Amino acid sequence: MMKLKLCFILFLLIGFFGNSQIIRGVVLDAKTKAPVETAAIYFNNTTFGVITNNKGEFTIEYTKAIQSPLIISFLGYKKQLITNYRKNNRLTILLEENNEALGEVTVNANDGLTRKEKLRIFRREFLGSSRFGKSCKILNEDALIINYNKKESVLTAYSKVPLRITNKALQYNITYDLNSFILHFMPPNPNESIFNTKSVGFRGNSYYKNFKVFNKDKAIRNRRKAYAGSRLEFMRALYTQKFKEHKYEIYFKNTKVDPWESIDIEPKTNTEIKRVSLSQPLNIIFNNWEKSRITFIIPTISLDFYGNYTDVDKVLFSGVMGDQRVGELLPFDYGL
């Protein structure tokens, strides 16, 4: 019996590691063909990442759970995104210089807000105001370009170089390459602050890494709390069609409904990916308390078992899930 059990465990391990794949490559300067040392190679919004050696070479391992683009980034060069890496496990990356990245930026100094005020608002809406958001710190805020359009009541931002963020609650060091941040304020009201948020959206590429001095118990406890009721957990529950098991109830307006009357899920042929369509916006109640709302602004998205989905900017969340910011977010490979 012991021998049979050991053989079974060995079979499982072989099967598990057999799902891993390796990409090897080299990163070179596009003009000189010189190797680019210490370039960052990572799968977007995951904990899978490496840097190149002194020959510009790298080796990175991934599993089928990883559906994110492969990002190649180095200061002073244009970032590259590769999506078809499964078809080619040996890559030669030619990075082009980005002469605009570190150039002078023209900023309207008389836009009605000081730099300090704009940073305070940006931190609140980018990192979040929850306990997890407040545990975050941006180490290189000088990389942020923030502008406020007083006439339109819109605050925009981007980063010249990737932001370096520490999240003490979740025990992550995060590299976030912020492409765009747009915050719309509510119309001014004489009795209220003019800086009440109407909507906020941001896009970028991120890489997560555990703290070197890692508090495992604290990380496990807080990451579980962040995962429960998150967009990531919801999308995984949607794929498996197990809302009830994950404490989700679905409502149309104020009436509890059968979710599968409004949500259509159809497996794609010969793949583990499913097509998902939503006929109407739905309200989501998590754990009998937290209320969110989901809306599709396109007919169909594609979704996999791990919670990765296409057209992320066309799937709109509001309420509690919509309020989740960088401080509450987890990498796509969390729990896998």
Describe the structure.
With 336 residues, the chain is α+β, with helices and mostly antiparallel strands. 18% of the residues lie in helices and 36% in strands. Strands 8, 9, 10, 11, 12 and 13 form a six-stranded antiparallel β-sheet that branches. A five-stranded antiparallel β-sheet has the order 15-14-18-19-21. A hairpin with a 5-residue loop joins strand 2 and strand 3. The protein is globular, with a radius of gyration of 22 Å. The N terminus is likely disordered.
- Give the strand tally: 21
Q: How is the main sheet built?
A: 6 strands, antiparallel
Count of helical regions: 6
Estimate percent helicity: 10-25%
Structure classification: alpha+beta
Shape: globular
Give the N-to-C terminal Cα separation: 30 Å
Strand content: 35-45%
Order of helical and strand elements: HEEEEEEEHHEEEEEEHHEEEEEEEEH
pLDDT < 50 stretches: 1-18
Write the layout of secondary structure elements.
Layout: H1 2-18, E1 21-29, E2 40-43, E3 49-51, E4 57-62, E5 70-73, E6 80-82, E7 90-95, H2 115-126, H3 131-134, E8 136-138, E9 144-149, E10 154-159, E11 163-167, E12 172-185, E13 197-210, H4 216-227, H5 231-240, E14 248-252, E15 255-256, E16 263-267, E17 274-278, E18 282-286, E19 290-296, E20 300-303, E21 315-319, H6 320-323
Parallel strand pairs: 1-7
Antiparallel strand pairs: 1-4, 2-3, 2-5, 5-6, 8-11, 9-10, 10-12, 11-12, 12-13, 14-15, 14-18, 16-17, 17-20, 18-19, 19-21
